[in-house]
Amino acid sequence: MNENELIAFEIISNVGTAKSKFMEALAYAKNKDFKTAQETIEIGNTFLLEGHKVHSKLIQQEAAGEKTDITLLLMHAEDQFMSAETIKLLIIEMIEMRQDFSRKCGS
After folding, report:
1. Could you tell me which residues come within 8 angstroms of residue 46 by beta carbon, excluding any fewer than 6 positions away?
2. Among 25, 32, 55, 87, who pairs with 40 as Cys (CB 3.0-4.6 Å)?
3. Percent of the chain scored above 90 by pLDDT?
């Protein structure tokens, strides 16, 4: 396995875990456990940050003149990274909506 494949798998692993944590946070919010939901979002953020660090390494290499072979695996890693960021934003909004609704309804 070459270095770029390892990088792609590292991105996929980290952002996949981040997405799972974000979905888990939404489940906590559905049960009105907003404190645990927020804590779980933060855990997801740490995994997303790790994926971002690896992603940044690729960008820095490219900027330094080291060409990156674009493979289907790397494209998949990029897609997973972007979807994790999108899912995070949407789930945070959904949790905030649930919190607001919970406060307004007194439940």
Report:
1. none
2. 25
3. 79
Q: What is the mean pLDDT of residues 18-22?
A: 98
Name the residues annotated as catalytic.
76
Q: How big is the chain, counted in residues?
A: 107
Give the residue extent of every domain in the chain.
3-105
Mean of pLDDT values over 2-22 = 94
3-105: CATH, from 3.30.300.10, 1.20.58.80, 3.30.1490.20, 3.50.50.60: 1.20.58.80
- Please state, in angstroms and as integers, the Cα–Cα distance from residue 92 to each residue in 15, 42, 44, 102, following that order: 16, 11, 12, 15
Q: What would you measure as the largest C-alpha separation in the chain, in angstroms?
A: 58
